[in-house]
Amino acid sequence: MLSVEDLHVFYGEIHALKGVALEVGRGEIVTILGNNGAGKTTTLKTISGLLAPRRGRIVLDGEPLVGVPAHEVVLRGIAHVPEGRRIFNRLTVRENLMMGAYLRRDGGVPADLDRVFALFPRLHERLGQVAGTLSGGEQQMLAIGRALMASPRLLLLDEPSMGLAPVLVEQIFATIADINRQGITILLVEQNAAMALGVAHRGYVLETGAIALTGTAGALVEDPAVRRAYLGD
Predict the structure, then answer these.
(1) Tell me: the pLDDT tens digits for 131-189?
(2) What is the C-alpha separation between 102 and 115, in angstroms, rounded?
(3) Residues 48 and 9 in one domain
(4) Model-level pTM?
(5) Neighbour-count burial of 189, counting CB atoms closer than 10 A to its CB (0-12 exposed, 13-18 middle, 19+ buried)
(6) Which among 89, 175, 210, 224 has the fewest CB atoms less than 10 Å away?
(7) How many angstroms separate the most distant Cα atoms in the chain?
(8) Domain range for residue 54?
């Protein structure tokens, strides 16, 4: 479904991504692991059109994405839940959700709104509440719900567990698995390697802007280097 080939991205003179290559098959959850500064967020931003690579290819279902504006990337079926949630604090929950659907001209918006409420009943309870007054967990639910309102085929999730209590982390990851079972492909960036590998089919380990290791989730869990670096063994 998604193919990334020889991706090179710079911030000024800083070479942030150094030939990153990865693939995400339809229906998969694929996770990218790595320490802070490894290039995980940069990879997602480049896929979603927020950053322009100096070299490399990004292909979605056979169509090239490099050079496509970010709003057009959304229309082609990719929605991005950014690190830090980035909700519209002064808008209500309903208004935030509808912002996710702002490019849509089809009749499926009400059904997708119902689907979001089924996944996150708390959002339905707080529909008229100003988003900036929500708890951190509720804001993460809202950020994911807003992305789902774009009706994506591929969902990019950047650190969905950041700053959340353990019980909420488990809830968020259970919901990520539910979303995938509903037919949405997911590319997941996550510091909590144990939770990420618990839901993912495959994974990549990114180190200083380059892919250092790849394999099935089960193989990565058993890999001694992964266990030492990311699983606390």
Answers:
(1) 999 998 999 999 999 999 999 999 999 999 888 888 889 999 999 999 999 999 999 99
(2) 17
(3) yes
(4) 0.94
(5) buried
(6) 224
(7) 50
(8) 1-77+152-233
